[in-house]
């Protein structure tokens, strides 16, 4: 219960804050670029410090770090609600990201540490299912709060939940001993924070190409220094021998690819539903409910599969089902009803339900230091999402521009108008002909834009399907056929 409440704070945060962005922009009088950093500031710190949070949990005890992270998260949320300006709001969001980096890996590690091997899969499944349900409820609740009381209400609902979580943790969760007595690798922590922070900043910052390349090269430099440090330091923050385990390395590579595919497909789907198909935001949000419901109610049972069947079979089948869902998601064309998107959403929900809890159980069962194992896995998932949006957006703009150019040429759109439209191709489905365009020509151009985006979405969905299938193949070739229950009982922390 404690872990679910704590992790739900982070999952709700990720699903409700986006709904408050238009109101924040209007109330604080900022630009669209400025308001994007309300999301990016949190994400930047969360990813950069996740590994450090996991290492702290192993060093000082999971309950202590979990409680501290939850308290920081709740206090920072209160700071967000009271912020009178964008700079102060961003400062509070940075602090909230730090709290999330402490509580997220510890919440999962607590489950692994306090449940025996026979119960662990079901417990992790319950955790995954509850997280999916809170993620689904978040947008509905957040939208109502913003409409009724304004954007600060989105942040004000978090401190009471954080306080309740801390109280339950103090009452019900025993203080677990440290999993390691090694002193903390402060330089290693600084290097990994710099590497991951620069990577995320380089991906999400709307900088010039040369600035972006510089940031990514610096991230690579700090990352290389971190790996050298960890391979030579006597007490590394991230023991590299963890990755000598094919199971641990393969499962985290699976996580990166699977969440890259999932985030990419579900990020571009609302633009198809709203800007091309013409559905409202509420209708588009409803399209995701079957996915959340399937994961919410099915993950508990899926978590038990790891005890009954060969893990590599489960973790090959799950991503393959998910890949089929991505293909189905790309089938509907112009004027499709929501029902035509339902098969894809349902199949993706089934595939991810089969995959998530068993995958998490495999990761947590393949390492003795569960705090850092949870941190690595959470970092892989979050980083996969960041990479998906950055990489696939650039790829989508290129595909969309090429497709649109061909369609406008075939429709004999005047060269000057075509050139003007192609200059704004980065808007994707939000692109529209200028107001002065004659009605007949505007209809032709609008149809070309819509069909070009649908074709682009099909390409993206197909690419996501390939990545999901590759993650399943990685499972088949990297995971050993093992009896997890026999191997993990001895390492359960009581």
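-> sequence recovered:
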């Amino acid at each position: 219960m404690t872990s679910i409440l704590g992790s739900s704070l982070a999952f709700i945060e990720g699903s409700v804050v986006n709904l408050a962005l238009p109101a924040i922009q209007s109330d604080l009088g900022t630009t669209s670029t400025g308001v994007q950093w309300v999301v990016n500031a949190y994400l930047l710190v969360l990813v950069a410090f996740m590994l450090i949070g996991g290492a702290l949990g192993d060093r000082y005890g999971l309950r202590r770090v979990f409680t501290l992270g939850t308290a920081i998260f709740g206090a920072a949320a209160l700071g967000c609600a009271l912020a009178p300006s964008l700079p102060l709001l961003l400062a509070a969001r940075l602090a909230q990201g730090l709290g999330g980096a402490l509580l997220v890996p510890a919440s999962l590690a607590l489950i692994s540490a306090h449940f025996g091997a026979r119960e662990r899969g079901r417990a992790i499944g319950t955790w995954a299912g509850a997280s999916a349900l809170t993620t689904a409820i978040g947008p509905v609740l957040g939208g109502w709060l913003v409409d009724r009381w304004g954007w600060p209400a989105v942040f004000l609902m978090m401190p009471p939940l954080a306080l309740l979580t801390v109280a339950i943790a103090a009452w019900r969760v025993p203080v677990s001993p440290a999993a390691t007595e090694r002193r903390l690798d402060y330089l290693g922590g600084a290097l990994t924070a710099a590497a991951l922070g620069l990577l995320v900043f380089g991906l999400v910052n709307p900088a010039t190409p040369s600035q972006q390349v510089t940031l990514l090269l610096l991230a690579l430099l700090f990352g290389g220094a971190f790996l050298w440090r960890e391979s030579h330091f006597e007490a590394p923050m991230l023991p590299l021998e963890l990755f000598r385990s094919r199971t641990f390395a393969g499962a985290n590579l699976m996580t990166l690819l699977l969440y890259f595919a999932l985030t990419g497909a579900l990020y571009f789907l609302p633009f198809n539903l709203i800007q091309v198909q013409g559905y409202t935001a509420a209708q588009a949000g409803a399209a995701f409910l079957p996915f959340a419901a399937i994961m919410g109610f099915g993950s508990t049972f899926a978590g038990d599969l790891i005890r009954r069947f060969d893990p590599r079979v489960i973790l090959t089948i799950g991503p393959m089902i998910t890949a089929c869902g991505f293909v189905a998601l790309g089938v509907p064309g112009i004027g499709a009803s929501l029902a035509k998107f339902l098969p894809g959403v349902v199949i993706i929900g089934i595939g991810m339900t089969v995959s998530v809890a068993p995958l998490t159980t495999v990761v947590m069962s393949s390492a003795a230091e569960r705090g850092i194992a949870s941190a690595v896995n959470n970092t892989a998932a979050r980083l996969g999402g960041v990479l998906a949006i950055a990489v696939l957006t650039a790829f989508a703009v290129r595909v969309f521009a090429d497709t649109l150019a061909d369609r406008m040429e075939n429709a004999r759109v005047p060269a000057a108008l075509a050139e003007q439209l192609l200059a704004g191709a980065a808007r994707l489905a939000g692109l529209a002909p200028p107001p002065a365009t004659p009605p007949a020509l505007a209809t032709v151009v609008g149809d070309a834009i819509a069909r070009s985006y649908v074709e682009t979405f099909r390409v993206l969905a197909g690419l996501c399907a390939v990545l999901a299938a590759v993650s399943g193949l990685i499972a088949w070739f990297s995971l050993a056929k093992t009896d997890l229950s026999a191997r993990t009982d001895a390492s359960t922390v009581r």
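Residues 483-494 have pLDDT under 50 and may be disordered.
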